[in-house]
């Protein structure tokens, strides 16, 4: 007789593999009614756990995966420090995996974790990630996942984020208060959570001040820095060019400085700039850069703390929102 598997139970009850597994373990996350359905079907079909698979699941690797787009961005470097400050104390090793803003790479990395190589995953998704199916698939295998900074609404996992929309609104308002009348927004893919939320905050500030957001002032940048530089220069060559810029990601700020220098535009006299950035050298740039700074270390530590709870079988908050700090320097006027 063919052995009944958890996947077979899941298909029969139209539940996820993760739900079946948790119900069989009597997890507090599953309702009593669902547990009864699972146990009744398991008894009727003479289900018995695969001892080999169970031994693999029970064996802890003491490894945590940190899946991020890049490490050149100072936000992620600081976030890693925050994560390891928690995980190292708990006796876990961190495996850092870079997706290079590539959805396919991200899928392949998570697929490799289905075999028990890691006990949990912390992830900030790439700029080209289209859906959370690959993350949900990993969770269905019983691997705890926590998202931070760049998150996906369709993934039912704990998330640590900043108040992106409010922060972008405040940044845009600062430029308006300093006399800007045409403000451009530089972001990454509009499907990326941080870009979408920051764009929404930018647009809200414009409308509150009786300005209509214009598509030509919204620039979606990619992974190629040279292409991004050319796009920014094209934006600033327009006859009615922007007199202010809100840059939604750190790596775009140096490109604005470079573009303005090559076009003989002065910051902040000709173009005012504020950027979401954790750069420690923001204050000594010429001119110094006005920033919206996320508490990256704190976000990493909080995300790691949530993951530790999940791996211990405890409840974890589904969303933690931390405040970003706006620091006004010379570049915004």
From TrEMBL:
PROSITE patterns: HTH_LACI_2. Residues 4-58 form the HTH lacI-type domain. One of its GO terms (molecular function) is DNA binding. SUPFAM superfamilies: lambda repressor-like DNA-binding domains, Periplasmic binding protein-like I. Keywords: DNA-binding, Transcription, Transcription regulation. It holds the Pfam family Peripla_BP_3. This is LacI family DNA-binding transcriptional regulator. It comes from Chitinophaga pollutisoli.
